[in-house]
Amino acid sequence: MTVVGFHASHEQISPQRLLHDVQRAEEVGFQAAMCSDHLAPWGVRQGESGHAWTWLGAALQATRLPFGVVTAPGQRYHPAVIAQAIATLESMFPGRFWAALGSGEAMNEHVTGDPWPPKEERDARLLEVVDVTRRLLRGEEVSHDGRIRLDRARVWSLPEVPPPLVAAAVGEETAREAAGWADGLITVDQDRAALRRVFDAYREAGGRGPLAVQVHLSWAPTREEALAIAHDQWRNGLVQPPESWDLAFPEEFDAKTADASPEDLTRAVQISADPAEHLGKLLELVEAGADRIFLHHVGTDQAAYLDVFGERVLPELTGAAR
C-alpha cells in the first residue's frame, strides 16, 4: 500500500510551529514525515531555516512516525559529522529514520567559502561521501584522501542496523548512477512521463528499495487563495535545475521570479481548492509507481490543510494499492 508522508518545510515555518504541525499531521492520518535541510530559505519572504538535525531528534521523540531528511554532506557538512548524526538518530529510534543524500545547492553550501564545484564534480564527491558514510556506519575506522578527507575517523555509538541511505535525484541520469549505491530513490513531482523515466532508469540499472515523490501543492478554500499562497511562498519553484542548484542567495531567487504571475505557479505547484482534484493527481503518482508520496503544502499555515486532507484525501490515497 502507498505510504503518505508530511513534508516539514524548515524554510517556511519556525521549528516550534513545525513540531506542532508534524504532530497534527500524525493525528490526521499521515503515516510518515520528511524534512528539508537548509541553511537559508529559498526566498526572503519565507524567512525561516531551522537546523534540521536538531529538530529531527525532537520530532522523532514527539511522534511515532518514521522520518527522513534530504541532506548534502561534502561541503557545509563533513561526512563524519553526518554519519555520527545518522547513527545517533537511528540508535535512539530504531527503524524510523532514513537519510537521502544529494549533491547539494550553492545557497546552502557557499558559506564555507570553498568554490562551488560543477555538477560532475559534486556527483563524484557524493560517491565518496556515500562510501565513507557506509563504512563509518559499519563501525570501521576510515581514512580517506580525495575530494573529501578523513583522518582515522570512527563513529562509536552505532545502531544495531544502519538506516537506509536513499538517493535524491531529479533526472534520469542521476537516478541511473544512484542505482549502484542507494537503498531507495526520492525525486520531485514532475510530468508523469518524465517521472516514469526516472523510476525506470533507477530500476533498470538495478536500483532497490522504495520509490518516493515529494509533491509541492497549495490548497485553500478558493482557487484564488491557493494561487496567492503559492505565489507568495513558492515562486522559487519556477527556477529549475540546473540553475536552481547554482544560485547562492534567497534574493537571487526572488529577483529571478519577480515578474511571475500567480497563474505561472501552476507550472511548479499543484494548485486547487478541490480536495478531489488533488487526490486525482496524487493517485496518478501511485499509478506511475510511487511507493511513498510526501505532501508539501506550500503555505505557512498548515492547520486547515491538514484537517481537510486528513478527512478527504488521505483515506483514499493511503488505501491505494501499488
Automatic annotation (TrEMBL):
Q: What class of enzyme is it?
A: oxidoreductase
Enzyme Commission number(s): 1.-.-.-
* UniProt key word Oxidoreductase: yes
Which GO-annotated molecular functions does the record name?
oxidoreductase activity, acting on paired donors, with incorporation or reduction of molecular oxygen
Q: Which UniProt keywords apply?
A: Oxidoreductase
Q: Where are the transmembrane segments?
A: none
Keyword Oxidoreductase applies: yes
Any coiled-coil ranges, and where? none
Instruction: Give one Pfam family, short name only.
Output: Bac_luciferase
Q: Name the InterPro entries for this protein.
A: F420-G6PD/mer, F420_G6P_DH-rel, Luciferase-like_dom, Luciferase-like_sf, Non-F420_Flavin_OxRdtase
Q: Which residues form the Luciferase-like domain?
A: 9-292
Supply the NCBIfam families for this chain: F420_G6P_family, flavin_revert
Q: What is the protein's given name?
A: TIGR03885 family FMN-dependent LLM class oxidoreductase
